[in-house]
Structure formats: C-alpha cells, structure tokens
Amino acid sequence: MNKIKIISALMCAVSIFFMSSCVRYSSFEELAGISNEITTGYEYQTSENIENTTTVIIENTTGAFIPENTTVQTVPETTEPVTTRPSAPQTTRPQEITTAAPVNPETTVPSVEEPDYAAFTKAEILDTYTKALNKTRGYTGALSVINTEAFDAEVKEANPGGALTELLADNIIKLVGSEGQQTLEFSNGKAVNKDGETIPILLPLKTSFSLPEEGLASASISKKGDKLYIKMTLVPETVTMGQVPKYNSSAIGYLDTSDMDFVIVKLSRVDITYTGSVIDAVIRSDGYIESVNYTINMSTYAELSGMGITGYGTLEGAQTEKWELQW
Q: Residue 271 burial (CB < 10 Å; 0-12/13-18/19+)?
C-alpha cells in the first residue's frame, strides 16, 4: 500500500505539471486525502468511468519493483470549474481633454517683393503707365480735374521780318490751343470742356492711348514714398501739312494742320517736327494716376504769303498741359 501512495502522489504531481492549464492547483493535504481515498476505497476501473479518467504513464526511475499485475489508479478529472487568479486589470490613462486652441505650426505669410525699378526696361515702364492710364480712364465716379494749358513759342528765323512774321506766330499759337486753366467735372468717365467738347480723362482726347515700344526714345521709373514717378520721351517725328504724327497722335495729341485757314496769311508749306514729346506722370499706390504733365516740344517751319509779301519763318516752342486729379 505504501508503493501505491508514492505512485499516486507522483502521478498527481506530473498531472499538475503537464496539465496546469486545465486543472486547479491542490495543496499537499488535498493530495494526501486523495491518496487515503485510494487506499481505503480502492476499486477497479470499468468502462463506465474510463471516459472521465486521465491516464498518466510514469517512468520507473527509482528501480523499485512494481508487480506486473499491479493496476495504477488514475485520478479522475474534476468537473469543478477552473479557478484562475484574475490578473491585475490594465489601466489606460484617460486622454486629457483640453479646451485650448490647437497649436498650429507657424505659417509664414510670403512678403511681396518690391520690384527692382532700376532694372525696368522701356517695355515694362510703358506697360506700367498704360495699366494706370486705362484704370484711371475707366473710373466712373464723380471726379474733379484741374486742367492747365500753356504755349511758349519763339520765332527763330523770319524772312522778311516784321508784321508778317508776327502774324504767322500769332496764328500758329491760336492753332495750338487756348491758354488758361479750367476745372473739369467728370461723371462716368466723361466731361465737357470750355469749348463744348466732350472729353475723356487724360490725353489723348480724340482716341484711346496707344504707344508701341519703338515710339519711345527713353523712359524712367522711380518710387518715392508710396508713389511711382514715370517719365517717357517719345521719338522725334516730322510731318508736313495735313499729315498725322504716328506716335504723338495716339499718346498725347498733335497740331492739326489739315484745316489751317488764316484770313490774311496763306500758308503754302508747313513742316512740323515733334522733337521729343514728354509724358511725366505720378501714380498712386492704388494704381490710379494722380497727375500728368504733358509737354509737346515742336519746331515749325512755314512758307506763307500775305499783304503782298511772300516769306518764310521758323517757330520753336512747346505746348504744355497739366492734369491734376482731385481724388
């Protein structure tokens, strides 16, 4: 019977070692109780209880003699629920809730690079002026403009001199235009001048502005404060009586000799050389023109007859026109 106790204890230990995942742990006292039951209530296994029996083969390592007909009693599997020691619950740190605004990466607002006006070409300067002029001419609100005109001329040559030369000079000055100052009240881009003509904002008066790059002799641009200063000089042009100067006519204006009709003096020939008309403009930061000074430099050669005298003369001068826009 002692051998059976030893074998039973070893079988229980091996069963616990290999089957720890499906049986509960038992104390030494419990194992001793099972051993006592085996020794006091020993019975043979039958086919009825073999299904609930786990057979454990134990290797004889002690060298003790085991009879051949000895039946090793196996420990029936318990049907009690497996008691597993609960593991410590995992605790997850709750996410901190904040009402503060999310921190966004710093965004850099690209700065507008100041153009290098010193490197501007004639084409770029011309384009800058053209855009400003078109924008100003497209203004449809109420606008007052102070317009000042003047003509300064000097007779350079006269043959014969005297009354005939003075008469020639007087008539040409009248032909160029009247001098003086007027305030033009514009509405929807139009105003009526003192001669009763409906005119647009700024020159030229009879057509839209147009000037190709080849019509420019020189051009400059600079910035002072928040304003741009543009100065453009047109190439010289020479026309005869009745002809129209190509660049001056579409950029500023010209002296129309097609309908020259003097009462006393009869012109047989007129040559006008536009020696280099100038556009001097100031452009505001919003792209509108603040003021423009126009200067039409010219030299006029004329052959005439009158009062029984035939002669010729040369007149040089400049017609100036200033526009000051009262925004």
A: middle
